[in-house]
Amino acid sequence: MDLYSSFPSIGDLKRHARRKVPHFVWEYLDSGTGSEVTLHKNRAALDDVEFLPSILHGPIECDTRTQFLGQDFPLPFGIAPIGMSGLIWPDAEKLLALAGAKAGLPYTLSTVASQSPEDLAPHLGQNAWFQLYPPKDPDIRADMLGRIKAAGFSTLVLTVDVPVASRRERQVRSGLTHPPRLTPRLLAQIAQRPTWALGMARHGMPRMRTLDKYIDGNSALSPTAHIGYLLRTSPDMDYVKWLRDAWDGPFVVKGVMRAEDAARLKQAGVDALWVSNHGGRQFDGAPASIRALPAIRAATDLPLIFDSGVEGGLDVLRALALGADFVMLGRGFLYGLAALGSRGPAHVIDILRQDMLANMGQMGLAKLDQLTLRQYSN
User: Fold this and answer.
1) Under 8 Å CB-to-CB from 5, ≥6 apart: which residues?
2) Cα-Cα-Cα-Cα dihedral of 47, 308, 32, 215, to 10°?
3) By CB count within 10 A, which of 40, 129, 218, 378 is most buried?
4) How far is it between the farthest Cα atoms of the chain?
5) Helix 331-340, helix 10-18: angle, nearest 10
6) What count of other Cβ atoms lies within 10 Å of the Cβ of residue 169?
7) CB 99 within 8 A of CB 346
8) How far apart are CA 250 and CA 50, in angstroms?
9) Is the CB of residue 106 less than 8 Å from the CB of residue 78?
10) Element (H, E) at 324
11) DSSP code for 288
């Protein structure tokens, strides 16, 4: 099958993915929180970023290469962390790690993924990142850092924008809990998606394997919380400084939306800031991430990563024009996995690459560092 003929965009993959996974899985992947105002604002605000096309510049050979955190990358984007991605598609973390390694792009494993650092160690490329939900216990914290370093992860990403569980009402209405309980309602949904069901039967229902070592028993949790909430804390600046001292490698803080936080994070030794509103999944009163990006760029010379709402190569260029140095996508890669299985992640990368090249050509850009914004619509 010619993938480009059937799935020329991430939107095509998204529509097909919805038909391939049970309803409760789709609601986990696609939903935001609250009334999903922030989720929709992310998309609308990106659409408001417009460029004037360039004409009469002659043939241009576009170059998408970039440098970030001391590494050379063929493209200015990577794979963001996605909690419990093994619920979306069997063996998801391994497939995403392999795709990232093959393409020479960063892959980020979540603390609450369904495979552990040790599971993925044989499949990691040289740009493996680990996203940390902050453990409260210092012994667990130190042990986890040792495990991820030994497995081959080079960059540590501390997520700071999840002090409490979000409500994610669509997820609650779907009947999904953590861990998943196979009620008759959910079993009926699974029966309608035989390919997904057979894959899960081979691999088993996912669980948060990184945390298995630290969990002794269980406690009552809200439907949208998970076992990780029994271990984590809401970090402060002392926590950031402890991690900086303990981690020998690039250190990124994820979930920055205020410009005034940039200076103190730089002073604490953070190597890069990740501008994100958690894709609209955590707080429905937040602005679109792309709206927060320019002020943070103006406030710091630290490298900036951007996510939230990215659906194509043009969105990558929009984020770079407004001050990002690198862009990460989460949902898009899982849409690819759910739609096409193991072929999906590589196809997502190709979609983004081809879209970037087409739009760079329209703007007359030979290199990414020539990108400037001519925004004329708010």
Assistant:
1) none
2) 170
3) 129
4) 68
5) 60
6) 17
7) yes
8) 33
9) yes
10) none
11) P
Kindly tell me the sign of the dihedral angle through the C-alpha atoms of 149, 153, 154, 157. Answer: negative
Helix intervals (H) in 31-127: 37-47, 85-88, 92-103, 117-120
Find the mean pLDDT for residues 62-71. 97
Contacts of residue 165, defined as CB under 8 A and 6 or more positions apart, other chains included, come to 221, 222, 224, 225, 229
Contact 272, 250 (CB under 8 A): yes
Buried/exposed 284-312: b ≥16 CB within 10 Å, e otherwise = bebebbbbbbbebbebbebbbbbbbbbbb
Residue type (1 letter), 348 = V
Hey, what are 336's tokens? 């690819």
Confidence category of residue 375, pLDDT binned at 50, 70, 90: very low
> Using CA atoms in the order 54, 57, 58, 64, what is the torsion angle rounded to 10 degrees?
-60
What's the CA gap between 194 and 340, in Å, rounded? 14
Closest CA to 160 of 63, 58, 264, 32: 264
Model confidence pLDDT, tens digit, residues 250-280: 999 999 999 999 999 999 999 999 999 999 9
Give 147's contacts (C-beta < 8 A, 6+ positions apart): 116, 117, 118, 210
Average pLDDT, the chain: 92
Catalytic residues: 278
Residue 314 CA neighbour count, 13 Å, CB half: 15
- Span 317-329, average pLDDT: 98
Q: Which two tokens stand for residue 2?
A: 């010619």
Tell me the two tokens of residue 342.
């193991």
Pick from 246, 294, 244: which is nearest to 272 by CA? 244
Closest CA to 76 of 292, 344, 254, 310: 310
d(CA 347, CA 17): 14
Number of alpha carbons in the 13 Å side-chain half-sphere of residue 51: 22
Any idea what DSSP says for residue 223? T
Q: What does the angle CA 291 – CA 297 – CA 301 come to, to the nearest 5 degrees?
A: 165
What's the half-sphere exposure (Cβ side, CA atoms, 13 Å) at 304?
29
